[in-house]
Specification:
Blueprint: E1 3-10, H1 14-31, E2 36-40, H2 45-51, H3 57-65, E3 68-73, H4 88-99, E4 103-109, H5 122-125, E5 129-135, E6 143-152, E7 155-161, H6 166-181, E8 186-191, H7 197-213, E9 218-223, H8 224-233, E10 240-243, H9 245-258, E11 266-270, E12 277-281, H10 298-310, H11 315-330, H12 344-356
Parallel strand pairs: 1-2, 1-3, 3-12, 5-10, 8-9, 8-10
Antiparallel strand pairs: 4-5, 4-11, 6-7, 11-12
Helix pairs in contact: 1-10, 1-12, 6-7, 8-9, 10-11, 11-12
The chain binds adenosine-5'-triphosphate (ATP) and magnesium ion.
Adenosine-5'-triphosphate binds at residues 13, 17, 75, 262-263, 283-286, 288-289, 295-296, 299, 335, 337.
């Protein structure tokens, strides 16, 4: 049956990199037995300019009715000074919340051809393949109470609250266990159970779910500060790292830098089984190079690969696309961010050529 993919190109380099992923879908439809129909909608700053809001109710409905959503990037200096609800980023949070995508998958994958671009020595990162599973819709970014209050005499107080319920912890832990079962079977859960009640609950719930339903998973627990150290000391010790919204934000950015390039890394945000996933590069809209045809499309192409694997039931094609990106790099294809001279379209050509054989 035909599956549907909604493209939200967004702002800055978003439309340029998304166009290369769209080309790839066309190629896979024509040559590899894929059956995906693509549609496009405005999102972020582009939607603010045309529709007055970053995410219209129609676009959200379209996203929820699709099998997968592939986003480019949102934001740019021209919208940065507007009130929050008129900012592109507000559209992104509304989309994540509206689609109820609570599990953020962020691979930190080091391509052999780029291993020398890491801040660590080649031997420490070559073959690196970590999958972060970050809780995305709870924790301290959303907990109540929150706000800044005036205490008088010029003194002020800022409050955020870290809150997790057992069901929020278990549903994201389940995603990590299911993923690990298809990899090496190891999950490391990172929290601060020594100083935080929510961290203690996190550790207890993750362990209880593992004992009850995933006895074959090799689960370890690590304090998040130690995880940060271990990531730069010996990152290859990790397979799947499960963690909350805040620690996951920081630790996955740290690990991304080990792999050499922002322009190469995809992400997925998943909700309950059967609901559409949201896929996007981890990089931003890169206003400094937007419209110049210089952006690296690989993060978008690899995000499409994740969509093929997790939402479009074509894990086989996901493997092929990932292999094609690695092959293009092995053959020397490089955009500027990874030390080469190719433009966006030429890099897309190189991946398509590798895919074709
Ligand atoms: P945001 O707030 O939107 O996440 P950011 O400050 O994190 O933005 P990015 O937009 O990700 O920044 O860009 C950071 C730097 O990396 C910029 O110099 C940008 O040009 C470069 N960059 C980001 N993505 C790419 C890409 N796909 N190809 C080439 N360079 C990129
Ligand atoms: Mg950023």
């Amino acid at each position: 049956m035909t599956k549907t993919l909604l493209l939200l190109p967004g702002d800055g380099i978003g439309p340029e990199v998304t166009a290369q992923s769209r080309r790839l879908v066309g190629w896979l439809n024509a040559n590899a037995g894929l059956d995906v129909s693509v549609c496009e909608a405005r999102f972020g700053g582009a939607a603010i300019d045309a529709d007055g809001v970053p995410l219209t109710p129609e676009t959200l409905a379209l996203a929820k009715a699709s099998d997968a959503v592939l986003m480019g990037a949102v934001g740019g200096p021209q919208w940065a000074k507007q009130s929050y609800d008129k900012r592109p980023e507000a559209g992104l949070l509304a989309l994540r919340a509206g689609m109820e995508v609570f599990a953020n998958l962020r691979p930190a994958l080091c391509f052999a051809a780029l291993a020398d671009a890491s801040s660590l020595k080649r031997e420490f990162v070559e073959g690196l393949d970590i999958m972060f599973v970050r809780e995305l819709t709870g924790g301290v970014y959303f907990g109540e109470p929150r706000g800044i209050s005036d205490l008088g005499n010029g003194e002020r107080r800022g409050v955020n609250t870290q809150v997790y319920t057992s069901s929020e912890i278990r549903r994201v832990a389940r995603v990590a266990f299911e993923l690990a079962a298809k990899r090496t079977g190891r999950v490391c859960s990172a929290e601060k159970s020594n100083v935080m009640e929510s961290g203690l609950l996190w550790r207890e719930e993750v362990q209880a779910l593992r004992d009850a339903e995933y006895p074959h998973i090799d689960l370890s627990h690590m304090l998040a500060d130690n995880t940060a150290m271990q990531l730069v000391k010996y990152p290859k010790q990790f397979d799947v790292i499960l963690t909350d919204n805040l620690f996951g934000d920081i630790l996955s950015d740290e690990a991304a830098m080990l792999t050499g390039s922002l322009g190469m890394l995809p992400s997925a945000a998943l909700g309950v089984k059967g609901m559409p996933g949201l896929y996007e590069p981890i990089h931003g809209s890169a206003p400094d190079i937007a419209g110049k045809g210089l952006a690296n499309p690989c993060a978008s192409i690899l995000s499409l690969a994740l969509a093929l694997r997790y939402s479009l039931d074509r894990g086989d094609l996901a493997d092929r696309v990932e292999k094609a990106v690695a092959t293009a790099l092995d053959r020397g294809a490089r955009t500027g961010d990874i030390g080469g001279t190719l433009g966006t379209v030429a890099m897309g050509d190189a991946v398509l050529a590798a895919l074709a054989g």
